[in-house]
Each structure stands twice: as C-alpha cells, then as structure tokens.
Amino acid sequence: MLDLINVSKTFNEGTINEKKALTGLNLHIEEGEFVTVIGGNGAGKSTMLNAIAGVWPVDTGTITIDGTDVTGIPDYKRAALIGRVFQDPMTGTASALGIDENLALAGRRGKSRRLKWGISSKQREEYRNRLAELNLGLEDRLTAKVGILSGGQRQALTLLMATLQKPKLLLLDEHTAALDPKTAATVLDTTEKIVNKDHLTTLMITHNMHDAIVHGNRLIMMNNGKIILDIKGEAKKKLTVKDLLGEFEKASGEEFTSDKAILG
C-alpha cells in the first residue's frame, strides 16, 4: 500500500541552518498494517508524514501509494488517497458548522460539487450510527456546532471524518499529544477500533513508547532521518519500554533522551 524508496529531504540547504531531515529513507507497508512510529525530536517522523502527504516535495526518491507514483503530485491531489489527523484538535474540523455538516463535507471529499446542498435522512442516519460507535454521546447532538465540543470530542470527530470514505492510507500525526491522559486513551481506543474494523493501512506517530508498543501490529523507530528499528508480530507483542530503549541504543549508538517518550 505504501512504498518509500531512497527518500531524502534537506531544509535550508547550503545555509548555516541546513538540516537533513530524511536521508535515504526506505519503507514498505502492506495493506492493512497499523504501524506506530517513534523517535526523538528531529528524528524525521513528521517530515516523513508530510512527504507522504505531499506537503512539500522531496529532494530524491519515490513515494508510491497503492501502486500509484505520487512523488510529483501536489497534496490536494493526494487527498483522495489519504486521511489525516493532526496533533491540534482545532485542525481538521470547521468550528462554525454543525457535526452533521462537518461529516457531510468529509463524505463529499474528492467528489464533484453540485448546486444542490443538503443532508438526506439516509445520510443523517449513517452519521448517527457512526457517531454512536465513538461512545461520546455525539449521535444525539448532530446539529451542535463543532466549536463547542471538547478537544477529545473534536479529535474523535476528526478521526471519523478522516476515515469516513476509507482512505488508502491513514496518517495520524501525534493525534493524542494535546489531550489529557484519560481523553488520549479514549481516542486511541477509538482509533484502534476504526482501523481494525475498516482494515485501514495506518501510520501513527506517537511520542509515547508505551502507546507505540500497545497499539498497532508493527513498530518503527526513527533517528537522524532513517529507520533504525522495525519490529512486528510476536516480537512487538513481547516488547517493553526498557527493551525498546536497549534496542535503540544498540542500533544508534546513542542514548534515548526524550523523557516525554519514555514517561508519556
């Protein structure tokens, strides 16, 4: 479903602020894999997601989604293939519109626009059923303005909007980092439920090593713009945070210094 071949990206090249964000990155993800991504600050995690989404062009290499080379395709044309949830709960929804209107916008993504605007009773029933699966009581508040929802409710709604049309690839960029621990756990459980139910190919960046171990069926760790660890299956299930730290130090020759990731 996703292939990154020899992808490199350097910011501010040739200046005193030059930063090699990705260096010959290679990654192959099968359809239906749920991959968690972890690494310290500046490891290249968000740069990789932005490269996949087409936020900026890469310097070298190719990016293929579901057999289509998207390397030179701008982000708005990749949107039909990708669902994305950002760290900020305020991003991804329209505050002044109702919950139902936000879902309608998500449902029409990539489709031709018509003069007729409205939400049918059939669509409302579908939205109500999908919202009920979140267990947040939003199914009874379809017309409520999204701006009055809590951060966790908005993030859960954004997740639902991003997956309403079953994207080829779901990108989650630290989507629980701005939430309190209890709300973050609820959103992560919701994420797992949606991903498993719809068999979505998913890349989830997290700052929390425990979450990276518990969720998904594959874990990759990045450092200096490259993947230095790739663990899946039974080996991932048996991992502990201590094991992960040891593997990082063995692979990189460095000590992992992010308290946020370790203690999260």
> Helix amount, in percent?
25-40%
**Alpha-carbon distance between the termini?**
30 Å
State the strand order across the main sheet: 6-7-8-3-9-10
Order of helices and strands: EEEHEEHEHHHEHEHEEHHH
What's a concise summary of this model?
The chain is of the alpha/beta class.
Task: List its salient traits.
single chain; 264 residues; alpha/beta; Rossmann fold; 6-stranded mixed β-sheet; 4-stranded antiparallel β-sheet; 23% strand; globular
Structure explained in plain terms:
With 264 residues, the chain is an alpha/beta fold. It has a domain at 2-81 and 167-263: 3-Layer(aba) Sandwich (Rossmann fold), CATH 3.40.50.300. The protein is 35% helix and 23% strand. The chain is built from ten helices and ten strands. It has a six-stranded mixed beta sheet with strand order 6-7-8-3-9-10, with helices on both faces. Strands 2-1-4-5 form a four-stranded antiparallel beta sheet, covered by helices on one side. Helix 3 runs parallel beside helix 5 and helix 5 (151-163) packs parallel to helix 6 (181-198). The chain is globular, with a radius of gyration of 19 Å.
